[in-house]
Amino acid sequence: PSCLVRSSLHRSLFFSYKMTSLREVRASVSVQEPEALRASALDLLVTRRQQQPSAAIITTTVDSTPPGRVTDDPSLKSTWAHRAWVACGCASVLATLAKSGIAAHGDATWVECLLAGGLGYLAADLGSGVYHWAIDNYGDAGTPFFGPQIEAFQGHHRWPWTITRREFANNLQALARATAFLLLPVDLLPGEPGLHAFAGTFLGCLMFSQQFHAWSHGTKSRLPPAVVALQDAGLLVPRAMHMAHHRPPYNNNYCIVSGVWNRLLDEAKVFQALEMLVFFRFGVRPRCWSEPTLEWTEEVDDRLPS
């Protein structure tokens, strides 16, 4: 009988504890702002759990150590394969631009090449925005071919500062590889100075867009003065403009070459229209329509200077 009494008493105390916790959570929810609801409710339940005199408590620990907080993290280092691909990409771009210059003859052709190069520069910024929007909002680590880049960009949203620690060739190697393959057939075409100027500038800017992106996360005091000057002039994506992309609702300022298209695309709601088109055609919702998850919450490395 004494065992039954103790068992009954334990059950009563357990349910009393649960009801008290729920009442306190509801009370907390009624007075908190919407953006603080989850955090305050979770903190309250954790506090109550710690106060419980208890028996067995099962805890689960998730290793969320970001890249870069581990000394000499290999995922941020360049390998010889990375350097080889970047060298191939740079050689392809230089060969294409050189072919354009060699084929040019007369003032009219040089003007054509300069205009084509300017269009390539503008097209690269637009292309970087469309690609960035797509991998930010669709697919996952298991997506064929694009999976690793999608996963990397999701990690970047959680730990944006890690891109400033990624070595140069490591950061550019994926785009350099694509650039080398895409420029190969262009270089085999007969001399078309305008086409070669456009292709070389377009793919060259796209290849280096990840470096421009990394600079947009750097602090002014740690960047080369020439880079700061180009950012301030709007020729490279400005730091303040790109930082807006890493704040809620995470659905703007996607372009990362110069950012010249960002204002137009955002004000015209071009990406929102594309999201509606994809949703009604395929039934797929973009990530930016959902509440930000842990993967989209910026964690700041306190060791970095402001």
UniProtKB/TrEMBL annotation:
GO cellular component: membrane
Residue ranges of domain Lipid desaturase in the record: 121-289
Keyword Phosphoprotein attached: no
Leader sequence residues: none
Keyword Metal-binding annotated: no
InterPro entries assigned: Chloroplast_FAD_CarF (IPR052864), Lipid_desat (IPR019547)
Membrane topology: Multi-pass membrane protein
GO BP annotation list: fatty acid metabolic process
Location in the cell: Membrane
Keywords: Membrane, Transmembrane, Transmembrane helix
Family: Belongs to the fatty acid desaturase CarF family.
PANTHER family per UniProt: FATTY ACID DESATURASE 4, CHLOROPLASTIC-RELATED (PTHR48140)
Listed name of the protein: Lipid desaturase domain-containing protein
Organism lineage string: Eukaryota, Viridiplantae, Streptophyta, Embryophyta, Tracheophyta
